[in-house]
Amino acid sequence: MNSLTIYLAIGVVLFVLGLIAVLTSKNLVKILMGVELILNAAGLNFVTFSRFTTVNLDGQLAALFIIVIAASEAAVALAIILNFYRQLRSIDVDIADTLRG
User: Fold this and answer.
1) What b-and-e string marks burial along 9-36, b requiring 16 or more CB atoms within 10 Å of the CB?
2) pTM, full prediction
3) What digits encode the pLDDT tens for the residues 67-77?
4) How far apart are CA 68 and CA 70, in angstroms?
5) Is residue 100 within 8 Å of residue 84, measured between CB atoms?
6) Quick one: which of 31, 6, 2 has its CA closest to 18?
7) Residue 27: helix, strand or coil by DSSP?
8) Domain assignments of the chain as residue spans, ordered by start
9) Tell me: the pLDDT tens digits for 3-27?
10) How many C-beta neighbours within 10 Å does residue 100 have?
């Protein structure tokens, strides 16, 4: 039941859903959620390959690094989104070019 293809298929589904969210959404929060899905898919693939290869912790360490990067990226992106909303009262990506200096 725990085969490599099942985990890789879940990783592909997560990656494709995240990519669709990033490419099709005009809402900054949805784009951020799509990026998080893509990072989770990469972390899942690292852990999967680490599990089904020799006994080492390289995949788990890479996934831990991805989790730390995703948390810091979410904090910075949410701060930018809040500042964007505070100035323009919208989180639509189409009006983001008004922030140019």
Assistant:
1) eebeebbeebeebbeeeeebeebbbbbb
2) 0.83
3) 899 999 999 98
4) 5
5) no
6) 31
7) strand
8) 4-96
9) 889 999 999 999 999 999 999 998 8
10) 5
Matching CATH number, 4-96, of 3.30.360.10, 1.10.287.3510, 3.40.910.10, 1.10.246.130: 1.10.287.3510
Q: How far is CA 84 from the centre of its chain?
A: 20
How far apart CA 44 and CA 52 sit, in angstroms, is 12
Reported for 68-73, long-range contacts at CB under 8 A and 24+ positions apart, including other chains, are 69/39, 70/36, 70/39, 70/40, 73/35, 73/39
| Interatomic CA distance for residues 10 and 44, integer angstroms | 8
- Residue 8: both structure tokens together: 């890789």
Contact (CB, 8 A) for 59 and 51: yes
Burial 60-82 (b: 16+ CB within 10 A, else e): eebbeebeeebeeeeeebeeebe
